Amino acid sequence: MGGSQAVNRVQISISSNDDVSITRSSTRSTGCGSMMKFKRGPRCYALVGMLAFCMLVLYLGDFSYFFAILNKKVHVERHVLRWEDHQHKVDHRRPRIMIGTRGRMGNHMFQYATLNGLARRYNMTPIMLGTLDILEVFKLPTLQGDFSLLRDPITYTEQKASAYNPGVDKIDPTRDVYLNGYYQSWKYHDHMRAELLDKHFVLLDPIKEAADRYIASLLEKRNKQGATLIAIHVRRGDFVRQRVKGYTAAPIPYYYRAMDYFRKKYGNVMFIICTNDLVWAETNLEDEGGDVHYSHETDGALDLAIMMACNHMIITSGSYSWWAGYLVRGEVIYYMGYPQPNTKIGNLTNREDYYPPYWEGRW
Fold first, then answer.
1. pLDDT digits (tens, 9 = 90+) for 216-235
2. Pairing verdict, β 177-180 and 96-99
3. What's the Enzyme Commission number for this chain (predicted)?
4. Residue 346 class from Cβ within 10 Å (0-12 exposed, 13-18 middle, 19+ buried)?
5. Closest C-alpha to 273, from 285, 263, 262, 265
6. pTM score, two decimals?
């Protein structure tokens, strides 16, 4: 071996008069080292106590407000409606229904809507998981609990993620039900769309107020009061990188054709573009007429609220974009090129089941 390795040693000693010495030395050093010395007493105990208190505050405290500021997110309090707090209001003779959760916010919105749509159809009590991210966006009135609340349930598993599952037409209305899958079709819940919009997907106050302020400020700066608002959601990112799976990103002409349609129909318009690729949007969707605005928000909930506040919608691809369109009460134009046929995603999608018939598809 080329030489011995150094060994660091730390020695702590307490003398009879309560002096505490901490000495650090090395086997390679000859008499060299470092020593820290202090005396135990009230000051020492106060310092240790203050340190322990600070650690406890860090452990137990709610710093979501400060994290929200750092991440440019609107600070909200999660909407809580626990089963154990409200079960005395429930008719326990009714069957219960729950759904497993997959994906992210847009997927969770599909699953929530399907849960309530089928609960309404079969007169069941819907129960949602209390851990979902959409509880930090909406005042959802559905009770929250876990799967242990289901009593010997029957499981219904979908065959395709974005197609209607005919198996739900044969649900036994006398048994508890567990839904397994994405369940992404308007057919599961469109019969109660007005209720979903008016009583379920109601934004939490801080998010709603932030979106209202955002739009009011925008219209004032652009001198566009009274303009018809059209939201445009531009989804790129993974939809560009993973084309082999069937993801597609709408081409530039699709946006301009859809924008021209709204310009001709409503005249005084204001387009608000929300996207996960701001550089691409600002480069390719130019503000030639002074009626295009690019949202620089990084908070997906706030961007969704801004789009919901618009009159009409141009969507592209993905469940988040889909729900932005569904929650807008006006016209919706969607990109017909998603998903690519004969791909993994394409084979899991039935267009007639995925896109509502009152939306307009364009290329």
1. 999 999 999 999 999 999 99
2. parallel
3. 2.4.1.-
4. middle
5. 285
6. 0.80
